[in-house]
Amino acid sequence: xxxxxxxxxxxxxxxxxxxxxxxxxxxxxxxxxxxxxxxxxxxxxxxxxxxxxxxxxxxxxxxxxxxxxxxxxxxxxxxxxxxxxxxxxxxxxxxxxxxxxxxxxxxxxxxxxxxxxxxxxxxxxxxxxxxxxxxxxxxxxxxxxxxxxxxxxxxxxxxxxxxxxxxxxxxxxxxxxxxxxxxxxxxxxxxxxxxxxxxxxxxxxxxxxxxxxxxxxxxxxxxxxxxx
Length: 228
Prior knowledge:
By secondary structure, the protein is mainly β. It contains no helices and 18 strands. Strands 1-2-3-4 form a four-stranded antiparallel β-sheet, with no helix packed on it.
């Protein structure tokens, strides 16, 4: 998840990025995914909307809305779309009919990040609100399980795991047997999804720091990560 390697480009190599297409949406995009054939994009937006965007025409259709910011969206090979939002909910949509399938209230607070496992059998979501827990302003204990794993096909809750809130990011291993979650303190916890047991904890101070005005306020955190 964290690499110590340093890569250098050859001095004579020029890299130029050219925009192939520009598509506007009503509000800013917090998450984006494509369908399996690359015809459509699915966007989770500030207005809570989950939008389907045709890459050929740029035509946009709204599939549904969250009650607050939409923070995550992923398209599955079975033709369903799963989204997450700051309303703490997970929503399922059918891509063909563009109709909702189900809604699950996963958290009482925001879903910071949502990920579908590589085998597309599970969906992981993380939550947590920063509240001062002591005179050093260390985070208070969680008020609900910070990490939850659901069945991607049925919406059934499979696992609940504890972490120190707010837990900001989540990732599945390539074989879908492990899940990792990381928080504002730069702490990564990894669980085995077959046993439900905590495998290891990795802590790094490189992703968090004190406030710039010398207040005891944590800023930063690990907002995204992936298994190599």
